[in-house]
Known about the structure:
Layout (H helix, E strand, L loop, with lengths): L3 H20 L8 H15 L11 E3 L5 E3 L3 H6 L1 H14 L3 H9 L2 H19 L4 H14 L12 H15 L7 H13 L6 H11 L4 H26 L16 H10 L5 H4 L17 H18 L16 H11 L4 H18 L8 H9 L15 H14 L4 H6 L25 H43 L1
Antiparallel strand pairs: 1-2
Amino acid sequence: MRTRRDAATVALLTLGIFLFYVAFLPPRIYSIDGMSMFQVAVSMLTRGTFEVSPSVVAAQGRDGLYYSMCWPLSSVLALAPLSIAMRAAQHFHFDAMRSAEIAVLFFSPAFTALSAGLIAAVSLRMEARISAAITAAVCFAFGTIALVYTRDYFAEPLVTALTLWGISAQLEPSSTGVVAGAISGVGVLAKPPAIVLGPLFSLHAALQRRRTRAIMLPLIGAAAGLGLYFLYNQYRFASPTSFGQPYHLRLRNIPGGVMGLLASPGRGLIWYSPAVLAIAGLGRGRLRNPDVLMILGVAAGYFGIYTMWDGWWGGWCWGPRLLMPAIAVLMTLGALLEGGWMRAMVALSGAGFLVNAPTLVSSYFNIFREQMAAGVDPNSFLWSFSRMPMFEVWRTAHEELAGAPALNARFSHPAPAGSLPMVEGVWWWKLAESGTPPWVGLAISSLLVGASLLLIAAAFGRARAASLSSSRQGCDTASAA
């Protein structure tokens, strides 16, 4: 951060984005990935083991026990808030598991808001204007799939925040490599594809002709993180290279993975996070900058790994979930755009908000629930334009909102035979179960949104004032010369 004023501006923005996300928290974890990581944390806290039930994303391992196929760092970080939530629940006679689940739901909003702030910080390290840095951060926070994944418990928000933190540390001219090395290690524990960070940080340090320690530490960190993961695998599956996943990396997947992640109706980047397309307007001169090349390399690394993945579509998800870290990294370059390209990024972000906004009040899981109830595999629609989730969600959101007065009754009773239970939309829809009028929750959410917009507006106001002050200083210097 260039000045304390810039740091304060970014902090205001980050807090404002976080409050907006919290206003639309769901009442529970939707995804089986999230439940799997949650169960690992609960198991560690209550039994001192990593075992989970076979009903979540799990694989059979040692002694016939089941272990999560998901990533350990999210579960480890959840231990402290889970412990606090469960102790508080016992004291106030609440449901301990429900309280713990609610505590975990704050992780994704926090990590995603932090990622937005780090986008601004990284942009400032590349000498972007503060107003442009704030704009790029807001475009990411509200105009990409980031908006959607604040409402569940996946690993991607954590990986995204760690990736941006590592890049920010690496761009520090006086960097010793300690922070970049640490993040290269813990990033692997957050999700193994983050292994790309260590080599790229080391290459960047070498190009910048930094000391040997700064060059080697990211590589050492990545190797240490991978080594710890191997030990974790050995404990669970009696093999260091067994991650429990049914999918594998194969070169033959690349053509389908590239097309699917970029343009498929079900997961295509161009449909669900179109703001990234504006990065095409980056000037050629920027491409000779080692900082820009490192950032492009990180994005390409994530993209390249997932194009080779058997399950490039990411299971039941909205848009290219697996590419969330790559999208965030590319948005840091959005602050370097000028003129029409900057306006294009803002316009495309507006389109992205319209595409993703219905998921703020209605889970996209309801689309897949209906398809499964009809005996149809949701993955069969990955290439169907007529059944694109971005269109289907408007119908499910309308149906869910139309039934809002009776939500408590709908969600309290068992689902009809042959169907999956309806997924609730927003946290305050569940207040009726405790005898609290839902309008109380609506009022709280409205206050949070109002406070959020005020903070974001204040950040933009400070950014514009800083830009004007900088322009005046430049004019004064030119006049004096």
